[in-house]
Amino acid sequence: MSGSSFGVMNFNVRLLNIYEQLAADEIPEKISDFIKKEAPEIITFQEYAEVKNFNLNYPYKYEKSNGEKHGYGLAIYSKFRIVNSGSLDFENSHNNAIFIDIVRSNDTIRIYNIHLESFGIKPDNVDLNLDEIEAFTHHGNESSKRLLIKNNFSLNKSRTDEDNPNNIIFELKKTLTLH
Predict the structure, then answer these.
(1) Domain 8-115 CATH assignment equals 3.40.50.920
(2) DSSP string spanning the chain?
(3) 71: phi > 0 → left, psi -120 to 50 → alpha, else beta; which?
(4) SS3 string of 5-51?
(5) Residue 151 in contact with residue 125, Cβ under 8 Å?
(6) What is the radius of gyration, based on Cα positions, of the chain?
(7) What is the pLDDT of residues 136-155, one digit of tens each?
(8) Residue pair 153/138 in contact by the 8 Å Cβ criterion
(9) Which neighbouring-strand residues pair with 42?
(10) Range 143-171 average pLDDT
């Protein structure tokens, strides 16, 4: 990566297989090996639970569980110092969104982590008070593109990712409702 760019990975880790939904062994080890190979500077996790044998070398992290009863939730790991963090809890839901702020090149950058379909959360019943959300994905990642379109993101064909020409940019803009 160039001096001003950095890698961000998003990963639904499905509770790191703590309930053995998958017959495969060593799921936490395989996931951590994959992350180490890709080496993103920031990684966001959904359906995250702390388990042994899931070892990542990130000096900073922010985690938020879905209450004492559940013990799983969202997490963000960062190689950059986290200067602020928080959770946005949704009414009548066990779900939430979390964020961290990092400083890069004298700019504060906020990274959000949200699992839109978890527990029936839909984008139209969640208000994050944002005017626009941008999502960058590899042009060949069909599952990511389908998920973004399903959640009302639009492809912005006029924009390009200066740091990675293989990425395309989707946007979700807030619409004003007049009463």
Answers:
(1) no
(2) --TT---EEEEE-GGGGTT--SS-S-HHHHHHHHHHHH--SEEEEEEE---TT-----SEEEEEESHHHH--EEEEEESSPEEEEEEEEPTTSS-EEEEEEEEETTEEEEEEEE-TTGGG--GGG-----SEEEEEEETT-HHHHHHHHHTT-EE-TT---TT-TTEEEEEEE------
(3) left
(4) CCCEEEEECHHHHCCCCCCCCCHHHHHHHHHHHHCCCEEEEEEECCC
(5) no
(6) 17
(7) 787 887 877 888 888 788 89
(8) no
(9) 8, 78
(10) 83
Q: Which residue has the tokens 């009463």?
A: 179
Q: pTM (2 decimals)?
A: 0.64
Our CA angle for 39, 2, 167, nearest 5°, is 70
Phi/psi of residue 30, nearest 5 degrees: -65, -40
Enumerate the domain spans of the chain: 8-115, 130-179
Looking at the predicted structure, is the pLDDT value of residue 1 above 60? no
